[in-house]
Specification:
InterPro entries: CellSynth/LPSAsmb/PSIAsmb, TPR-like_helical_dom_sf, TPR_rpt. TPR repeats lie at residues 135-168, 205-238, 239-272, 273-306, 375-408. Keywords: Repeat, TPR repeat. It holds the Pfam family TPR_19. The protein has helices at residues 3-13, 17-29, 33-45, 49-62, 67-79, 83-91, 100-113, 117-130, 135-148, 151-164, 174-184, 188-201, 205-217, 221-234, 240-251, 255-268, 273-285, 289-302, 307-319, 323-334, 341-353, 357-368, 375-387, 391-404, 409-414. The protein has a domain at 339-419: Serine Threonine Protein Phosphatase 5, Tetratricopeptide repeat, CATH 1.25.40. 76% of the residues lie in helices and 0% in strands. The chain contains 25 helices and no strands. It is mostly helical. The radius of gyration is 31 Å and the shape is elongated.
């Protein structure tokens, strides 16, 4: 590599961007074509895509048979939002050109990003038909099917790519991708084997998370804890790991460790609803009711649409027979137009306990509109309707209970069907 360009790159890497770019400009003025190609890649990596494309187009004019230059220019066009130009250029790269595989992969990514999945798949399969032993294409197909959620297909192509042998320096690890596909397909033991293999060479944060998550599914909690800890040592801001690590500690009944992990996670991501909800469940389970309730309130304040948190709070208040808190929470949710038949069930009970029988009956109507096959709810409805003087509706609710369970003698007696 040109010595001055090496010096420019070092300046940029050390934070002296302006000086490094100025030196790069000087180098380009008198550089040979190989140096210009390196400078173009440098510009691309730095996000100076216009400058990268300018150099690429100059080189393409001189070397019209070098497909790798056209593939590189296509990447520039894609980054600049000029997708049609990129498509035309990539489609023109001959299958005899060494850049043909790269062009097919870029085409597939481009079509997939446009929602044209079938076209993307066709491009990859056409290329593989012409080059059946090309491991990079097999890897590309595995990636395509993994993104589409076709995990068995993805695993099949990843295995072929690994067996075929792949060049070094690829941006993805095929073993880790195969492990991800197996884990998503529920083949956890196979997934763990490939995670172990992939992590030997590429101990990435995503790899450690996948290994830990899969171990969690296998109920190998200690391995999960070890994996998530390694991940967080590597990247403390990988905030989804705190929730998963908390689950592993909770499963092992490591209460103090779980609490510490969740607290740290919340400090790093104060808007992570899952962490607040886990903390609430931990505290409520340990009998720290006031603090647990406060964490539930924080979740709901962050996101009134979090049904899990709302229901957890409603069940908690109901268990405490704190009907005013139930009604206050539901009034808060009304302001956000949050509706759920389960909420109406709690509203009906709370209003009934607060002697607002008419309001309870209206809430019960809303609950039954979507939960008419809930036997216990129908019995609650019958009681409320009867108290509100709606005897016919009360009888209808009891009849529906009998339809669900004809052997209920207590309901038969209430309806006068038996003595």
């Amino acid at each position: 590599m040109n010595e001055k360009l090496q010096e420019a790159i070092k300046k940029i890497e050390n934070g002296y961007h302006e000086e490094g770019l100025e030196l790069t400009e000087e180098v380009i003025k008198e550089a040979d074509d190989e140096t210009k190609r390196t400078a173009a890649e440098l510009y691309f990596e730095l996000g100076l895509v216009d400058k990268a494309l300018e150099l690429a187009e100059e080189l393409m004019f001189r070397y019209p048979d070098h497909g790798e230059l056209f593939a590189f220019a296509s990447e520039c066009y894609i980054e600049l939002g000029k997708e049609e130009e990129a498509l035309d250029m990539l489609n023109d790269i001959s299958e005899k050109d060494p850049a043909y595989v790269q062009a097919r992969l870029l085409l597939a990514d481009l079509y997939e990003s446009q929602g044209l999945e079938e076209v993307a798949e066709t491009k990859l399969l056409e290329a593989l038909k012409k080059l059946p032993e090309e491991a990079v294409l097999q890897l590309g197909l595995g990636e395509f099917y993994l993104n589409r959620g076709d995990y068995q297909q993805a695993a099949s192509y990843f295995k072929r790519a690994i067996h075929q042998g792949l060049p070094e320096g690829l941006p993805i690890d095929p073993n880790l991708r195969l492990a991800e596909a197996y884990s998503a397909a529920g083949q956890f033991e196979d997934a763990l084997d490939y995670y172990r293999e992939g992590l030997k060479e590429n101990p990435t944060a995503d790899g450690w998370f996948g290994f830990g998550y899969t171990s969690l599914q296998m109920e190998d909690y200690q391995t999960a804890v070890d994996s998530f800890n390694k991940l967080l040592e590597q990247d403390p801001d990988y905030t989804t790991a705190y929730s998963a690590l908390g689950k592993a500690h909770l499963a092992m009944k490591n209460w103090d460790e779980a609490r510490e992990v969740l607290q740290e996670g919340i400090q790093r991501d104060e808007f992570n609803e899952e962490l607040y909800l886990q903390m609430a469940e931990l505290l409520l389970g340990r009998g720290e009711l006031e603090e647990g309730r406060d964490f539930l309130k924080r979740v709901i304040a962050l996101n009134p649409s979090n049904v899990s948190a709302v229901q957890e709070a409603l069940y908690f208040y109901d268990d405490q027979e704190d009907y005013e808190e139930i009604l206050e929470l539901l009034r808060f949710l009304d302001d956000y137009n949050e509706f759920d038949p389960v909420y109406e069930r709690f509203r009906a009970k709370a209003l009934f306990e607060e002697d607002d029988v008419s309001g309870a009956a209206q809430a019960m109507d809303a609950a039954l509109s979507q939960m008419s096959h809930d036997e216990r709810l129908l019995e609650e409805a019958a009681e409320i309707y009867a108290a509100n003087g709606q005897r016919e509706k009360a009888a209808d609710a009891l009849k529906q209970v009998l339809e669900l369970d004809p052997e209920r003698e207590d309901i038969q007696r209430k309806l006068g069907y038996s003595e």
